[in-house]
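Researcher: Checking consistency across runs. Here is Concanavalin A-like lectin/glucanases superfamily protein again:
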Amino acid sequence: MSMTPARIAFGSALAVLLTSFTAVGLTGAAEAACPSAVAADQAPVSRTEASAQRLAELCGKPVEVLAEADETTKVLALPNGNFSLESHVEPQRVERDERWIDLDTTLQPGSDGRLRPRAAADVSFSAGGSGPLAVYREGGADFSLTWPDALPAGVVDGDAVTYPEVYPGADLVVRAVAGGFSHVLVVKTPEAAANSKVRATAYTIGGSAAVTETGGEVVLKGPRGVIAGAPRAAAWDSTWSKPDVGGPMRKLASETAVADPSTAEAPGGLARQAEVDVEVSGKRLTVRPDAALLDGASRFPVYIDPTYSKYYQKWIPVNDSRPDTKWTSGTAWPRDVIRIGSNFDNYGDIWRAHTQFDVTSLRGKRIIKTPSVEVYLSHTAWCAGESLQLWQTNAIDGNTPTWDGMKGKWLHGAALQTKTVKANSGCSGQKPSWAKFNAAAVKTRVQVAADGNASTITFGLRMKTESGGHWAKAERGKVKLAVEYQSKPSSPVAVRSSPGGNCTKTSPGPWINDSTPALYGKAADADNSVKIVFDVNGPTSPAEHTSGSVASNAEAGWTTGVLADGNYNWKVYGTDGTDKTGWSAACYFRQDHTPPTTPVITRTSGTPVLGQPVTLSFASTDAGSGVLRFEYGLGVDAKQTPLTASSGKASLTFTPDTGRTQIYVWARDNAANYSARAIYNVFTGRVTPVQPLGVYRLTHDLRDDSGTTDESGTEDPFANEKDLTLTGTGTTYGTDRLGKGGAALQLNGSGCAGTAPVLRSDAPYTVSAWVKLTDKAADRAVVTLAGTTMQSMVLYYDKAKDRWNLGVSSADVAAPTWNTVLSTAAPAVNTWEHVAATVDPVGKLLRLYVNGKMVAETAITVTTWHAGFRTMIGCSGHATVSNARPMIGLIDQVGLWSGLLSEAQIKDAGNELPAGIAAGWALRGTGADRAEHGYDLTVPEPVVPTTPPDPEPTEEPEEPEPTDEPTPDPTDTGNPDEPEPTGTPEVPDETEAPTEDPTEEPTPEPTTPPAPPIEWTADQYARPDSAWNVSGDRCATSPRSVIRSDESFSLSVWARLDDASAMNQTILGADGNRVSGFYLGARTNGQGVPFWSLMMKATDDETSPSEWAGGTTDAFAASIGKWTHLTGVYNATAKTITLFVNGVKATTVTRTGGNWSAGGLFTIGCAKYAGVAGDYFRGAISDVKVWRGALTDAEAAAVKQANNPVKVEGQWPLEGPRSDTPTNLEDTSGNGRHLSVAGAYTWEQDRAASRNGALGLALAQGSCAETAGPVVRTDGSFSVAAWTAIDELTGTRTVVSQSGALRQGFRIEYAGDVNRWRVVMPGADTAAAASVEVRSLAAPVAGTWTHLAAVFDLPAKKLRFYVDGDLQGEVAVSTTPWHAAGPLTVGCTGTTAGARTNYLGGVVDDVRVWTSTVDADLFGTFAHA
């Protein structure tokens, strides 16, 4: 088999040398100097051809190219710039320590006493004694042979060691060869030849290698495959002459044939030879020579020789006598020599040799001098010399290495060269010598191989006259090919153009816009110097251009002359002045110089809103190369970002910042021509959190439905501070845009409506209104935010421009600067239009909307200001002008918000304004309207039933006569053909009552007078007298209509169904003429199962269809005796009915009937059907609320858990008489709940060290402050806060509490037994009632100011406690809340009977009490202010 030598891997030391050299560079030879390490090295090396060439030139000595080095190949860079190659057929060196050293098989002892070659295969021999005779290591395995007996001391001679007399008359010789070893048994006498051990010599095999024998050939294998082998062993004697049987052939006396003698290395020319049988059995190797050789007339000594070596296939002998025999690399006969010609004793036995050389290094090179094939001849036959020929043959690789296999592979029909050689030491003046074949034909063949990128070239050796005993022997290790060469340019590449980029090898190529482009090409040349020739073809075809010399694979450039527009191709080749490459592949490009048209920019998305994407469309055309892309900058006048075009168009979506954003856009064609710049402005409005601060439906009233009290948005759902008032005359209510009468404000130019400032005009805000102009003869104002001297904002019809005009001014002065924006179209007379404005001082953007679409916008360049005088609707003005720009027309649905609505929200506001409280009835012992809108209920007295008389026996009553007039059924729910609500609730089984015996006379039972009905009962929180107990056929009514059922409305109520025997029971309704506008209450299905529902009739007629939001699934289940919270919402725009049960949305249905108005009284506990009251409710009702407008789902779901609005019930700053702002013991909340002090008190410094800033209450004096009565209801949600510092941490010391008869509604105190602050709530006003409490997390520090706060959240049933603004914990309050009706005490605990205990003994300051739950952040503000 063939073994391919591996190339060397380089180590770190060499890498350092090469790196240092590389830093010198490959140019500037005059400046560079030979590295000292190279100058001192006798055999310097470098990694690559280029680096080695550079070193050779600098240092004036050959440098080996390590990248090309192996066992048989050596390449040197020469100082003259050329390279030399020596390629051998046998290994010449080995790699040691990252260097290649010459092969040296001379044996020398090692530290272990064994003998090893200096530089050869890894083999060791015994010096004598026991142990292995030879050990061979290769390929991860080892192999050893051991002589049967102890060896005598070995005698070393060069590469061999002789063990004398291993048997009597026999020596054992072991020799190191290039790839392994041989062992020869030298039989010196006939007596020794008769020894049975000589005739069958047994060796013991050892090592890890697997040893097999096939056909006499031994093969060694390791983990990496075959590591070595021994060909068929041979034996030969020492015959060296014989009678001249061929005398007649010797024509001249000088033609004397002399045979070479036999040695331990090889047989002589006339030696008798025989095969040897080799047997491997287990761990034993037995060698048996042919007995005939030992028994015959042999001349002693006789040699018996197996050889173990690496496989090489760089040369092969072939023999015509055995034409099918493979003679692999000479490892069988003819052994260690190359035999050429006919045998001395058998002229018909002809040998030839094929030698194969590695020429990989010559690929693409130019041969400089005539190369030579050199053969070292050890012997020739005739003294007159032999005619030895050199042929070129086919390669050994890929062919059968036999005479027949190679017979037809001798090329070119003739020898490349014939030489007469003389190397017969037996002839006068002759000795072994080199034969050099260096004819021109050799150069030709080597050049052809180099040009063809061949990896090998094979030459054959044969005799010119192969018969007649003409032969020669050559040493196999001394056959080489020597070549001196230079590199040829190669690998031409047309690299790139500028512009245009990397070479495009397919037509038509890229577009470029430079008429004189730069072209770049390169070629390789290991001599590191090459020129590039350029060729351009197209509408303009300049002459070829040759560049200056550049380094190998370095780019050479050429800037062309002016090229006309059109299609071009170009290519290059490389030349060194002698050789040149072929043309490279062609590259293509196209010329275009015309820029695209200026982009047209269009916004295709809706009105820009902050945080939402905007989409722009770009369009451009280009007649030449076409539009490739657009490039744009957002807010920057620069080409920042590319956008690919398709058919000259592209779309950009981005999210702009608030205010104005300028987009700069360029079109770029495929040739990189840019268009002129286009600029587009995007004005982006912000959408901020919004709060309605003014909501005016203007339906028969001027009420504000925003639920806020001031321009800062303080919330109170029952607020009326912003209700409008009319000024002037002639203002009435007219028909709105939907045709509803009395539902819009009608102005005649003589008056308008106004109120205190609704919102802050120096912050972002939104206004909107429906307007119907009936006169355009002058300016007509819609909404004005007025200051003392000027308007901050005015939205009006501008007569001069016949447009809606929105303006904001710079200051409250007579002549401010205005930013204005106009609508794009003129408003029509007698046509309703929805107008809106957003003003964003932060984003600097002013926008005008008409009918839900943004129609104009502009940047705000002025500084906006707060108009603190008045908000006007239907006119403009200021403090001294009250009716400027008077409206003649109608205005409806006016909304003012803090924050910025989106376009979609503005459109929605045109249909639905935020919901606002119309009425609210807590029903805590009274029907008073908490909204104070004048809707106090009329609650009928309960009917006290009379005691029925004892029953008298009566006759069977007669059947009543039928009448033509039907009796109305107040429980009828509409069309009798309509199906009952669906569902499958569980219904208790019915049982039949026992049947009485009709023959028995009934015994009358004694009767008990009925108890008077309860009118007020406990509510959902078990608070006594806090719900209306509806008994009998009773119904509470409002004094007039509260809401319109043809507009959006919302309802909520707490209800407890006590009796489900009646099918239909209505809790809330509104009377129409025949039916109620809606029915919120309980219904029962056909099985008698009750469920909650909100039902509306399609028209004001009992026969019209009923439309339901309800059902009998669990979501609607009405449990008897259980409090349930219901919220119903009707959206008149979407025509949807939605029902929430206990804060969870149960269903939404869409009506099919039209909106109609039930303009009668609002009813609680009944409804109207067929013109009469009915559907009476049987149960309890609490906390009714009614809204104008539709609550959102989130708002509706939150109603159940909602607390009442926060209201300050008491505030005591406790600033003494000598403070900066004395308040003494006064309540500054405006509720008049002033304190009085029992016992001595003082005024002390407060937490800020302010004089007289806190109230001091002495412990020993029993000092305590209190109000005359209760401050807050403790059976509802409340909050309490105070600053305090106590003198001593002992006992129980109360800060704030509210007194009951025996207990307190709450206490905030210090508890000495646990050394903590705490808040305590007793479960009832009894001595035995349990309490709940929350403690501080840390112990207080005496004399340190601490802020304490407590919150009771009734809907959540939670008590929370805060210390210095931080939540300490919360606890559930499961007991029924109760009201402590006694005074609020500060500094002690009290009862209504006057008992006082647990005195504070410290200072207290800034005490506050609120109804409802204060935001916890406020406590943090107080604590850290």
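Researcher: Does this match what you'd expect to see?
Model: One thing to look at in this run: The chain has eleven helices and 98 strands.
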